[in-house]
Amino acid sequence: MKKELDAIFKSRSVAVIGATGRKGSIGRETLHNILLAEFNGKVFPVNPKAQVIHSIKAYSTILDVPDSVDLAIIIVPKEHVVGVVRQCGEKGVKGIVVITAGFSETGKEGEKREKEVLKVVQEYDMRMIGPNCFGIVNTDPKVNLNATFGKTYPKQGRIGFITQSGAMGEAIMNTAKELGIGFSVVASIGNKADISSNDILEYFKDDPNTDIILMYLENFGNPKKFTQIAREISYKKPIVVVKSGRTSLGAKAASSHTGALAGLDVGVDALFDQTGVMRVDTVEELFDVASALANQPVPKGNKVCVVTNAGGPGILATDALINNGMEMPSFSPSTVKTLKKFISAEASFSNPMDMVAGAGAKEFKLTLEAVLKDKRYDTIIPIFVPPVTINQLEVAKNIYEAVKDTKKTILACFMGAGFSSEGISYLKEHNIPVYIFPEAIAKTLETLAKYNNWLKKPKGKFRNFKVDTAKVSAIVAKAKAEKLDAIIGDDAIEILQAYGIQAAGYQYASSANEAATISSQLGFPVVMKINTPQILHKTEFGAVKVDLRTESEVKKTYNDLKNKIAKHYPNEEFSVSIQEMITGGIETVIGMTIDPTFGPLVMFGLGGIYVEIMKDVSFKINPLTDVQSKEMIRSLKSYPLLTGFRGADPVDLKTLDETLLRVSQLVKDFEDFVEIDINPFIVSPSKDNCKAVDARFILKK
Amino acid sequence: MKKELDAIFKSRSVAVIGATGRKGSIGRETLHNILLAEFNGKVFPVNPKAQVIHSIKAYSTILDVPDSVDLAIIIVPKEHVVGVVRQCGEKGVKGIVVITAGFSETGKEGEKREKEVLKVVQEYDMRMIGPNCFGIVNTDPKVNLNATFGKTYPKQGRIGFITQSGAMGEAIMNTAKELGIGFSVVASIGNKADISSNDILEYFKDDPNTDIILMYLENFGNPKKFTQIAREISYKKPIVVVKSGRTSLGAKAASSHTGALAGLDVGVDALFDQTGVMRVDTVEELFDVASALANQPVPKGNKVCVVTNAGGPGILATDALINNGMEMPSFSPSTVKTLKKFISAEASFSNPMDMVAGAGAKEFKLTLEAVLKDKRYDTIIPIFVPPVTINQLEVAKNIYEAVKDTKKTILACFMGAGFSSEGISYLKEHNIPVYIFPEAIAKTLETLAKYNNWLKKPKGKFRNFKVDTAKVSAIVAKAKAEKLDAIIGDDAIEILQAYGIQAAGYQYASSANEAATISSQLGFPVVMKINTPQILHKTEFGAVKVDLRTESEVKKTYNDLKNKIAKHYPNEEFSVSIQEMITGGIETVIGMTIDPTFGPLVMFGLGGIYVEIMKDVSFKINPLTDVQSKEMIRSLKSYPLLTGFRGADPVDLKTLDETLLRVSQLVKDFEDFVEIDINPFIVSPSKDNCKAVDARFILKK
Description:
The structure is a homodimer.
Chain A: H1 2-9, E1 13-17, H2 26-36, E2 42-46, E3 52-53, E4 56-57, E5 71-74, H3 81-91, E6 95-98, H4 108-123, E7 127-129, E8 135-138, E9 145-148, E10 159-163, H5 166-179, E11 185-188, H6 197-206, E12 212-217, H7 223-234, E13 239-243, H8 258-261, H9 266-275, E14 278-280, H10 283-295, E15 304-308, H11 311-323, H12 333-340, E16 353-354, H13 361-373, E17 379-384, H14 392-403, E18 409-410, E19 412-414, H15 422-429, E20 434-435, H16 438-456, H17 469-481, E21 486-487, H18 489-498, E22 506-509, H19 512-522, E23 526-530, H20 538-541, E24 544-548, H21 551-568, E25 576-580, E26 586-595, E27 599-606, H22 609-612, E28 617-621, H23 626-634, H24 653-669, E29 673-683, E30 691-692, E31 695-699
Parallel strand pairs in A: 1-2, 1-5, 5-6, 6-7, 10-11, 10-12, 12-13, 13-14, 15-16, 15-17, 17-18, 17-19, 19-20
Antiparallel strand pairs in A: 3-4, 8-9, 8-11, 21-31, 22-25, 23-24, 23-25, 26-27, 26-29, 27-28, 29-30, 29-31
């Protein structure tokens, strides 16, 4: 694939098919851009109606071009694309970029047209970017290819950029230029009929000109491949993504079903979490993070020092940093001693360090040098609000002088200096990112910290438990034979037990006396449930009775329930299930749902309100490593409940960790289920009292 | 006060005391700015060492100025300020602005100096802004006063701006100018020794040039007065505030004490909530909101329509809008019919309306006209990503043509068009705010929606219950006489009962038999607690035993507790309290803590983990109206637990609402407490089972 993409991005000979001389036309602008960027190769305009375009000889068809051609940029009307692509094939072109729109993005007719084009591409062993794309850019001075119809030829830089939306591509390139951010390669991949974002990602992995990868994504073609590639790349080159389509317009009802809890976006977040990909919410944040990554090391930790000549911005920065999970330790005594030598005694010598008004270039330099020596900090943020009396460029120069040799992360803020003053320009030219507002720095550091944590995390292993797959197969086969929608009750419990997941068994009773006898044998207290498949939400119906302590209580409860059911379902046969009651434990929920893109997601949460109202749950894409199962449990806000809240004994987390991994294995082994709810799985301090009490496996239709 | 502030802001005769000709000096720049802005009055430089400054005759002292002087701007060294101020008094000056720093912001010496200055100001019946401020601005063409030393003379506009930080003032004015936002009056209030932000707020209330008020605040001088003024103004003129100092650096331990739960900033948020003041987190958001308010009506509701020529930004906008609480209803059938007349059938005719590539000025105009007629929307957001083939200015003109007569809110987004293209400039000149990123619009709409909700909210009434204050006074007096730190146990319960708050009474037992007898009388089940003041966190010690169902259980529990205590506190006398057990209810916590700035805050939350780990609590500044008490309860994330979660009966909310108001009255009547915790207050479906079970009143030292 590298060879094929090299033919596209490092082409020495390009044909622009559909080039015109008409001002404002996409064909003209694309040819124009290639010429303006001083492409280091040969360009051949192709247009049956023109002799010369932009002073360059034009050819009727690509077959008339006398030289060989690596790359064809195609901008002809959609109906002509197939024919033109076939000519490219005959000519021996290796790569094509189809800018023309009107393919699968427009409905069935377009889809058909796209398939025809793809067939020809494959027939001639070519590779294609697009259709319906914005073009490609390679800023390498050896190449200088700007085959887009946009207005912006980006600065050279070390960022590779993949965009699924042409409009966003143009918007991002334009804004990047205003912010002074450069790109190595830009690929607008359009409908991804042939070459996908995964292919380009893989290309960036080994591209010596690309250190950082930015992506604008709307959906995933092959998330499994993305996971594998992105995970590998993230260890070497950071990936930052804006993925749109975050919210679902419909409100979700309160429910503990794993399926209803998984929002549209849970899979995407899980995917990014598991691959080290930094997800940002907005294009603004994309730039903020990219500026930091392109110019500074990823901070080694969360400890930040702010040095400022103005109190207000220092306080705003502190607010934002703390809110975004940073720490701001105070200075070491020796730092304070150094600072006191040149900073007025009126200052407070705390972090944020407000050097008080009047501090200028010299104070910035000396203060930064002092705090850089203080081992407590990973990141230093100089904040400058230019007073009229102080030369801004001098301050910028002195900031640079102070920090130029450090390995710590430096992110500067020039507030109220305009969007591009001479001080800001100076720092940017010297690889110090400058932000207009301190809040952007705080958000950036939060994103980088998440990445850094991912980098440091152990990779984890997949466990493989000895389980009884035959038993589960038998239960599933029986349920399918009976055309059941779901496996519930003791069958469900037996599936769990076959996978070594502890569960409280059921016994059934169809008379009050039988219920009492069974209860006595199990030992009090017991739980009684109506054994009627129609009533899935047992709690809401009042159909679960807990903590029954005596035989007479059991009998009375049996009769009460029977009468209640008789009223609502007069034709229903009545029986109950009796189960030992696990006391003193905490209810958790373990579940699985199928994401249409990512496949099975495993869920964990604390039971009842934590799941249903607080939505305090975690999801991961199956299968889970032993590190991931631990993380799922420990990342919950309600996690402290499990570790000994208010003097309670901590629950047996080892058993819980293992249970999640066993569920993960079950999900991996059996593709028969579309949803699993183990609810509740009770956890307790003693291993013996960690047990599933109810479970439900919804079968694939 | 209006007259005095008019003398300052609408002065006809200004002396600049400390003006110099030295480039870069604050004195020179201030004089220079007054001249540059073409001040509509007389200016007199005062400097003992110069004859002429900037071609204007200078005077040795203000007493030498031949004309009368309304306003003196003082920039002399800090040691000379008192003397100069006295001369101003003798001259008959009405207002002074002291720019000089080195007063209370720098420590004790400076504080003394500030007091001396203030004394002179008051002696001569003058009013003073500052010291340590950035100066003042009035852009009214009849005045044109720019008495600051900054580099920016703001555009004329209808925004009044109060800033407590000079550096932030300069930064904000500078950025505002770049964004094309204008101000009516800017007041940098510095140390607020005399004139406060409240005074300026009040001035803006009746200032015909000011429609919107922006503030940058670091702290509150007189929050009670702020509450009263801000509440009144908010109904007429929106107030938007950046208040810094949001976070406390120290992490807060998990605890249910109201005091520990109230962060540094809970009072500020409560204050803003209660006064309709819009709080924004960042200076960026301040501008975003200000642009909308200055040019567009506040949206009547949350329903938004997005019209775009590019899919990607449309999706990003939708994500952000939904996340910020907006709704995006689909089009009415008649709107779809209209749209189909001129938009390609390939479009999807849903909200966001992606007109697909190629849509230009005409399509924007027709689509906007169509959706403006659709009654479903309160706000319309046109998003334009400029393709090379489309004239951006034409699009801007057509957007304006379509929306110029609407009463709906229009906020536009031009993405990737640069920070100030001709299209953006055109729209801004025609009062349509333009944002670079759609997320900023979403955040702005969220802030405006909160304001609109406040405007629509009923004002509420204070209730006055008949209570037994004498009884509470007696209990407090007794506790004080005994030098107790806190009132707990049955004394605390009696305070509640005196205020008509239902509570479960205590009885004490100092033997197992006595405990059993009392329990029998109360009726089972009962709760037993160790009656030992030292063990405040009873649950953690395991010193509360609930659900005791028989006499023998009571006796055994008594003896177990006694043995446990004997081990840890061998010299402690042992007794227990016995209390009826309220079953089937939900634990809540009602509390009070004193905010150093805002006085008593009332707190409400659900008990246990909801309060301690989920931090799901609400605070309001006391006293509460009947609307506010309701809001406190209903704003909790865990509120659905009270309204019948999973088929349970809803609790008696009326009693809970009333209980909060009774607590509010108690807090208002007695200033003896620094903290109150009613924990738990159990709520149940039946009024009789809504009862406080434990309470603690910590006494002021």
